[in-house]
């Protein structure tokens, strides 16, 4: 196997990278997720925009080269995720959109695309608003503290939102933060980040003899039984109605909104309905992808606003001007928060929800005179890509005006890709942006965000980019006069 890797060392001799060792490759360099963000961010300065790396005995290229990204994001031979995704999530997410490939991925992507149609997204504004009220209550309770880890509270909010949206079911974790379903999801995410960097846990046959594996199986039982129970209940309900219109009324007489699960329940592939297990995989994928990534984005945006009061003032003025005080908020209102959207985009530039993600080469191709062989891993170093001074002058400065139409036109279109791009771009990015704007607008309406003296996030790249010491701000409730 090392000879196999060594072949690529020879093949990539024109590409620089850190020294690799037999068997372990660069394991000792990248084993600590608390240091990985800084280590990977140093790669472009040390080795150039494309760095060669060995994860164990598997060759990889880590890149911020927009020309290479043009190939990675658009090639039909580069749509598959790396084996890391399968290793970490296959028992939980199965063949859901995140890790499926080939015809199954294409068929399910086609089925799910209508779930993000404007008319369906319009219905979710009510969910954002109703769940947002609980969020503000929880933030108000915490506002007496000098340092509030808002990430934890936003995680509860986003899980409530995605459960309502994906399954049409209220979990109410904001009122019950110790909910066993919430605990199980957190456990699965922690296990994934632990396995990713530990060679004992990476080996599947060794992993199955560990206590961590037993913990995973127990958490999976909680998650799958919860999801399958809701799916079966909803399937029976729809069948009892004998109706093709799922936008009717539920058993309590309330108008039922179309959910992601409803679309899956009513869909067929080659004339056959999806099984409960196939639906569970997709629903759980939505819960996983739409929960922690969104809460991290909201949290880092609030942190950036606390550090940039002049920007926060402009956001507050826009929110007061655009959002109506005397009627329900609509999707058009949220979309009209144009400056807030630029603020969110700038925050996602500095703190993308996923700092590094990978693709695997399905068919050999040549790039820049170098053969990139089948099974080669290509990692997109998003954190560093978004800080490339060639595309973003003074990259550490928080400046939302980078995202005016004029400024965006000056950059390469792949210089900024927080929701990925090409064939496997994030299917839920419009949903996510609406949720982000709705939540942050509510926070700014009700609180002035202040920096915590001496606090700096200790960035760590686990499954998502987060902070080992929380994402913290000081919350100063606005007076009634200010809210008017």
From TrEMBL:
Keywords: Heme, Iron, Metal-binding, Monooxygenase, Oxidoreductase. Transmembrane segments: none annotated. Its cofactor is heme. Pfam families: p450. The keyword Oxidoreductase applies. Belongs to the cytochrome P450 family. PANTHER family: CYTOCHROME P450 4AE1-RELATED, CYTOCHROME P450 FAMILY 4. This is Probable cytochrome P450 4d14. It comes from Nicrophorus vespilloides.
